[in-house]
Write a structure and sequence with these properties.
Blueprint: E1 3-9, H1 12-20, H2 26-42, E2 44-50, H3 59-62
Parallel strand pairs: 1-2
Helix pairs in contact: 1-2
Length: about 60
């Protein structure tokens, strides 16, 4: 049986890159590809969704606020 992998992100462009599995930026391409490779290695069903910035408790820390 497969497990589920829920991945929430507060950046729409990154969310779309993850969903497509590709990015026009080389580092984004690497992250998207690595994410799907990890999902395949773990034999899980990935779910990618956007979380609004106000609902993201770590957002202020990552922005130095």
């Amino acid at each position: 049986s497969r497990s589920s992998w829920a991945h929430y992100i507060d950046n729409t462009l990154v969310q779309h890159a993850l969903l497509r599995g590709i990015s026009s930026i080389s580092s984004g391409y690497h992250v998207a590809g690595s994410t799907w490779e990890a999902a395949a290695d773990l034999a899980c069903w990935p779910y990618v969704d956007r979380v609004h910035t106000k609902s993201n408790p770590i957002d202020g820390v990552s922005r130095g606020v």
